[in-house]
Structure formats: structure tokens, C-alpha cells
Design a protein that fits this description.
single chain, three-stranded parallel beta sheet, 258 residues, four-stranded parallel beta sheet, alpha/beta, Rossmann fold
Length: 258
């Protein structure tokens, strides 16, 4: 099957992969008066007295915003927020189909960190959690960090932590099959963006000791020129033997390649 051609055809047919479905019956006058005015005023007053009631009296308890600025969509790069919408809708469909979690895409027309953070912060009261998606590095690190500081709901950057969790699961199983231990192997990774850095941080947190992180230039190590802030910090906790060279050179003798 040509997935590109078939997917495009299906997207024209679907005209969107998600929709809003009404959970309350609206068949009679009483139904309308309960779901909307005048009866709806009472749950509003309950939430006014205790904002946490919004998790019980609205769908907020099961609603996630999938947020992107369209700067790092799949392997396509910076294609814009609207062009990222098919991916965001797809992620929302996964939330609903596999987790029964309602999700809604928010594609923000800005690359400015302050604007993105403020937009999400102002909308946070409508959601139970925020899933950041396809935002380019290193901006994504700052956006996630600042949102965690200013929002009172969970903030999750899927490209970092979702990928890292899956990689950790694969690593655990691979070690079981080969009879090796995490603190005894040597790991080399290709890529030092959002996913690559998050993967290594998670693996280190569970016991990995010997790892070399590589970017387009080659091995990352303390003292290498041209490192951005995130790579600078990673150089402090990786490549303990100060190995230098290209990815091909660094791979010699490695147990695991990510």
C-alpha cells in the first residue's frame, strides 16, 4: 500500500479525524433547561466557590490540549501550525481510541516562546492536562519548563517523554534478552534534540552510566565549542571518557545504538 496516497485520500473523505459529541440528552425542554440555562447556573456557582469542582462538573477532568506551533512536525520540519493539524488530530484520535481521553488540537500561530507560554497559560483552565507536540528544540525545553512553573495542571512534551518511555521499555527488554546490565553497557545516540536528550536523561536516571550523545558535528563533550544551553548541560553528565570524533568513529565498541 502507498500510505502517502491512501492517507491523503482518506483525509479528504474523513474531513477531520475527530469531532465533538454531546454527552447530555437534549430532546425535551427540560433537557435544555438542565444542560443550559437556567439550570446550568447552579454548577457555575459551585465552581465559583471551589474551582476544583470544575473537574467534577465539566469535562475538564478528561480533556487534554494537544499544542503545537508547527515548527518540528514529524520529519517535515517547520511547516506551520495549520499544516501540523493532521498530526495533532491524529494524536487526539490516539488519546481517545486507546485511552478514552478526550483531546483537542491547539495550533498556535506564533514561534515566540513568551506568546506560546502565555497562550497555553491563559487556556489552562479549560483542560485537565497539556500535551506539547512537534515544537522545535531548544525552544521546546524552555516552553515545557515555564509552563510547569506557571500552570496548575500536568504538562507533558510527547516528543521528549513519550519517546523516552518507549525507548526505556525497549532497553529493559533488550537487556533481559542479552543478559546484560544497564550500568555495564556503553550506549551511543544519534541526535541531540528534544527526543534524544530526554531519552538519555531518563536512561541515566535509572542507572545508565556510559553514554555518548552525538549531533551532526559528532560526539558531544565538555569544552566543545558551539553547544547550545541544553547540549552544554548534557555534556556535563555524558561522555565520561571525553570521546571525540564522528558518529561512525564513536560507535566502535558500543553495545547499544539509539
Amino acid at each position: 500500500m502507498n500510505y502517502a496516497e491512501e492517507s491523503l485520500k482518506k483525509h479528504y473523505e474523513w474531513n477531520g479525524k475527530i469531532e465533538v459529541v454531546c454527552r447530555a440528552p437534549l430532546n425535551t425542554r427540560d433537557d435544555l433547561s438542565l444542560a443550559y440555562t437556567p439550570g446550568v447556573a447552579q454548577p457555575c456557582l459551585e465552581i465559583q466557590n471551589d474551582v476544583n469542582k470544575s473537574y467534577e462538573l465539566t469535562r475538564r477532568n478528561n480533556l487534554v490540549a494537544v499544542v503545537t506551533d508547527g515548527t518540528a512536525v514529524l520529519g517535515l520540519g517547520d511547516i506551520g501550525p495549520e499544516a501540523g493539524m493532521p498530526v495533532m488530530e491524529g494524536k487526539c484520535a490516539l488519546f481517545k481510541s486507546f485511552g478514552d481521553v478526550d483531546a483537542f488540537p491547539l495550533c498556535i500561530r506564533s514561534k515566540d516562546v513568551d506568546e506560546i507560554v502565555n497562550t497555553v497559560r491563559l487556556l489552562a483552565g479549560s483542560f485537565g492536562g497539556i500535551n506539547l507536540e512537534d515544537i522545535s528544540a531548544p525552544r521546546c525545553f524552555e516552553i515545557e519548563r515555564r509552563l510547569k512553573e506557571c500552570c496548575d495542571i500536568p504538562i507533558f512534551h510527547d516528543d521528549q517523554h513519550g519517546t523516552a518511555v518507549v525507548t526505556l521499555a525497549a532497553m529493559i527488554n533488550a537487556l533481559k534478552l542479552t543478559g546484560k546490565k544497564l550500568d555495564e553497557i556503553r550506549v551511543v545516540t544519534s541526535g541531540a534534540g528534544a527526543a534524544g536528550i530526554a531519552i538519555i536523561r531518563l536512561l541515566i536516571s535509572v542507572g545508565l552510566k556510559d553514554v555518548v550523545l552525538c549531533d551532526r558535528t559528532g560526539a558531544i563533550y565538555e569544552g566543545r565549542e558551539g553547544l547550545n544551553a541544553e547540549k552544554f548541560e548534557m555534556a556535563k553528565i555524558t561522555n565520561r571518557h571525553m570521546i571525540k570524533g564522528t558518529l561512525e568513529e564513536v560507535l566502535v565498541g558500543a553495545d547499544v545504538f539509539i
